[in-house]
Amino acid sequence: TLGGTFAGNPVGSDSNEDESITAGDLSCTVRLLLFGVNDPCAAVGRSGAKASLSLPTALSVQDGVAQVPVHFTANGNQAAALAMALEIDEAQVAFDAGDNNGDGLPDGLQLVLDGGFQAMAVYKAGLLNLVIFSPELKALADGTLATLSLAVASGNSDSPAVRFSASQPASAGGVDGATVPVQIDNDAVGGVNQPAQQLRLFLPTVGR
To answer: What is the C-alpha to C-alpha distance for residues 79 and 140, in angstroms, rounded to an integer?
Structure first.
């Protein structure tokens, strides 16, 4: 962790050296290790429009199951990595965290990705961490990236069943390794927008 007490590398996981741990560090690591690029990744992010993520405003329920799509819009950015965390209210809905089909992802999560992308997801105690990245440094296209299938409990409340985590804000990394700013257009199913706080981020490691 950048600025932490560990006596090893002071940069920590901040491979693009922008003093922030985001998905940009993942795309930067891919660029440096897998592509052998000697030039440093961009260190100051970028200006212009932010990429965006959104959830639907209401649950669409059929036969007791709600399908919740996660939509991505690049807004002119070339994002090769994306990290997000979704909070799921287990009092209202049930998420299938098992992996009966053996694809390495929870069965309650369906991804819609082009070739050249990989994903990692971890679910625990109502929190789904999802990371998408391209070892080929391809750019994510606009559209639905993932859909959550949720079994809806009877008598569920009007409070949000799914929302983007405020304590683990979403981030993206460009094909150049720079951090791409991400805005949340609708942060919760049935909820209202709330400002994100940059506190923690779940990222996988990349080995060569």
So the answer is: 6
